[in-house]
Fold this sequence. Notes:
CATH superfamily of the largest domain: HAD superfamily/HAD-like
Number of strands: 8
CATH class of the largest domain: Alpha Beta
Distance between the termini: 27 Å
Mean pLDDT: 95
Largest sheet: 6 strands, parallel
CATH topology of the largest domain: Rossmann fold
Shape: elongated
Order of helices and strands: HEEHHHEHEHEHEHEHEH
Strand content: 5-15%
Strand order of the largest sheet: 5-4-1-6-7-8
Number of helices: 10
Helix content: 40-55%
Number of domains: 2
CATH architecture of the largest domain: 3-Layer(aba) Sandwich
Amino acid sequence: xxxxxxxxxxxxxxxxxxxxxxxxxxxxxxxxxxxxxxxxxxxxxxxxxxxxxxxxxxxxxxxxxxxxxxxxxxxxxxxxxxxxxxxxxxxxxxxxxxxxxxxxxxxxxxxxxxxxxxxxxxxxxxxxxxxxxxxxxxxxxxxxxxxxxxxxxxxxxxxxxxxxxxxxxxxxxxxxxxxxxxxxxxxxxxxxxxxxxxxxxxxxxxxxxxxxxxxxxxxxxxxxxxxxxxxxxxx
Length: 235
């Protein structure tokens, strides 16, 4: 990670897209993801009928449980999404802000760039987080969550990023997404946007090595954006 590499990526971007769970906050910090996944399974039991959970549906990842339930039929996908949205929104109220996350968002706006959050979580949970942790600088930003009842269109599908670019009226070549997972990187490549990988855990730098730049500190991104803003102001 060098400032020159990050400057190059930011220099080409007129919009910065932030994944939510990771770069902005730890969504399930106060309500662990395995607990949410188990609660989702339990609440789906009355609706399951003869449908069977796959290996993915038995995982500790709520998103995989949601995707598995959706394979039972469209109505099951909507029921599962409604339950998960409720659970995520509750979790958002106790989510832990990522150090440097809010500063990076503020610096994005201060640098004159467009801003958005694009997430596999529900848009409702994203907005609930910002009620608990107000960020006035993001008031005009776009929020794109997963499409209700359509988990197959979550990242790594490029659809959420494509929708975000449409809302911001920004071409792919002028956007960068800050994400912490391989799904973010794959979606970014498919959508034609650059990717800043946030490797917040050991080993992620290897998994996300194909990103345009890898960082391990969101505050570093905030500082680089602030420098860009200062340079532009001096011109």
